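Fold this sequence, please.
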Amino acid sequence: MNETEAIDRVRAYIHGKYPDYPTDNLVAERFEVGWTVFPQSDPEDFGSLRIGQTIFLIGDSGIIMETSSSLPPGQPEAEFTRLHGTGS
C-alpha cells in the first residue's frame, strides 16, 4: 500500500466514524508494516496536533487501528507490529 492509498482509506474510515475530525491535511509516515496517518501540524499553530488526539495506523493489509498522540513516539507502531506482524 502506498502513502496516497493509506491516506484515502483512513479518510474514508474517519468520515464514517468521526465526521468532525479534520481530514483536509492528513499525512502519512511509513513504519515497518504500514502507515501512521494524522493531521499535518502547522508550524505556525503550536500544538495543532493536540495531546490525546486520535491518530490512525493502517497496515499494508488494510487493518486500521486507532491510537492517541499522547503515547510515546513509536509505541503505537510497535504494538501494531506485534499484533499484526510483518506481512499483515
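The first strand starts at residue 26 and ends at 31. The chain is about 30% helix and 25% strand.
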